[in-house]
Amino acid sequence: MEDVDQRRSSTAPRYAGALMLAAVAGHLLSETATGSLTTWQSWVLYGIGATLLVLSASAIDRLNQLAKRIRLRWVVFTAVLLVAAGVIALAGPPVVAYGRVLLLGCPQPTEVRVLTSKDAAPAFGEVARKFELRTAAENHGCRTARLYVFSAAGDQGAVALRSSWSSQALREIGPHPDVWVPDSTAETAEVVRRTRGIGSAVHVEQGGPVAFSPVVLGVPAQEVRGGVVATPATWGEALTAVTGAAIPVARPNPLVATDGRLATTALYESLDPAVVERRVEEADRPRPGAAMITTEQVLLRYNRTSCARKPCLTALYPADTYLADYPVNLVSWDAADVSNHAARGPARRFQAWLGTQEGMTALNAAGLRPAAQAAGAEFREELGVRAGLALDRAEAVPDEAAQASFQKRYEQAKRDGRVWLTLDASGSMTEPTPTGETRFAVAVDGVAKALAQMGPKDTYGLSVFSGTEVRPLIPVGRRDKEAAAAALSTVRPSGGTPLHQAVVDSLDRIGADDAGHVGAVIALTDGEDTTSPQTRQEVVDAVRRKGIRVFVIAVGGASCATHALTAITDASGGECRDSTTDTLGDDLAALFRRVWGGAG
User: Fold this and answer.
1) Beta bridge partners of residue 423, listed in sequence order
2) Pairing relationship of beta strands 549-554 and 517-525 according to DSSP bridges
């Protein structure tokens, strides 16, 4: 019986070895067929592995012989095998991977394509390199992922994703992205909604923000050091202070640039939109001597890399500002020719790494502020920024209602103003005011104050009315603000007040609104109509027929209610405003702003 057992035990290693050799042969054929064994190093590595596998058959038999001499040998045998299997499972892959690196070198890393904005691309390019180094540190010095960071101008990335990345997007922007990092969560909602439907080739998995950068007003540093511009409380105060110091203010186009849109939304909350649009210029990059609306991280990088004498710009932080908050969204492509299954794992690991301490430190070093970490050493006054922030807003972006109405308000405010201004030059306008000036002289000063706020594309025309006639002084289309004062200096008030005739004449001269212009008639008078051939009802009918808004400023002895001037203005959606000689300039300016803003 012992001889039988011995024969069985002596043949067991041969059977086990033959079985393993057959497995090795089958695997070898598979590897050869797929072209995996192409170098002598790969053959050496494969031979070592096969030898170890065959020798393991003898080791198992010897372990079995040893177990026969031990009580409860099957329990011990099983336990030893389980422990050995666990050790092999844990230690085998790293050992094999390290051996493969030694003999074959590093395998090609998986490419992950990261789409972001032009402003954020330098920062996330730095962060991506640090993530690659982290993967190398965990894989024997071999990077497992290569992050290709590319950018799209303005909102082109969002538009291309909504349309499933057309051939035009491939030419003008770049390859299909695996990760999308826009400047703001405000950009993602519409893209996610449009790509969620059945049949869409792209699916965007919305991720949370990983960092933020407040939208700031970068002011030339010498102006801040000289005390010309103080720290503002709101965006409205900041813009007023900077433009009041005759410093030009540049802003990226708010219809496509997130920082321009967020700042403009905040400005509209504290200033009339038409005033905002006449105080800012559109520009994508800072220029010498001008202030710039941008994000803190862009200003910081500009001061650090593009500035001879640091800082060129100092950031002003309005308490009511919004934030660029950089959500990291994962993008999946399911069409056969663009599928990105291989990149999805590394992309998700990159997303998760950005939330680790190491990832947040990398974001901070790149000029971004991780939500769970204080600002680092880069945030200092020598580079035009400050580490501590005290902002009033809890939300990073405007609510959906504000976002939905923004474009309409912007387009209304951007329309060129076209105003016909007609002034009362009747005899009563020669009466003195408490300051000693005549009413007409005060009106002329008010006109100059109102026209000083005109934008470079706004136009106006001017006439005066007295006696029985309306006399045009400046044809519509003039942009020369000083021309009005020169023309009015030749007028000598006298006679009656043909107000009705002046309004009808002005309606004929100004023309109706169109897509590019918003027009109105503004009439200034100190009394009721006395000499016009038209009745009040005829004027009301003409106003309704023309569809042009009419605004009236009643000053001196005139009154909107007493003289029923509101009948004319209400018919057009305009306004009648009682004024005084002290407030006439401000009231005229307010009406000009209302015309520019397109309010009804």
Assistant:
1) 464, 524
2) parallel
**Per residue, what are the HEC states of 339-378?**
CCHHHHHHHHHHHHHCCCHHHHHHHHHCCCECCCCCCCCC
Token digits for 275?
């005033």
Residue 232 in tokens: 């503002």
Backbone angles phi, psi at 586, to 5 degrees: -65, -40
First-to-last alpha carbon distance for the chain, in angstroms, is: 111
Contacts 24+ apart (CB under 8 A), 561-567: 563/527, 563/528, 564/536, 565/525, 567/536, 567/540
Q: CA-to-CA distance for 317 and 393, rounded, in angstroms?
A: 12
CA dihedral (4, 5, 9, 10) in degrees, to 10, reads -30
Structure confidence by residue, pLDDT tens digits, 397-414: 898 888 888 988 888 888
Which amino acid is located at 570 in the chain?
D
d(CA 549, CA 193): 41
Asked whether the beta carbons of 576 and 559 are under 8 A apart, the reply is: no
> Which pLDDT tens digit goes with each residue over 409-447?
888 888 788 899 999 999 999 999 888 899 999 999 989
pLDDT-derived band at 162 (thresholds 50, 70, 90) equals confident
Task: Tokens 């009802």: give the residue.
Answer: 537
* Measured CA angle at 134 (ends 132, 138), to 5 deg: 115
Cα distance between residue 98 and residue 458, in whole Å: 72
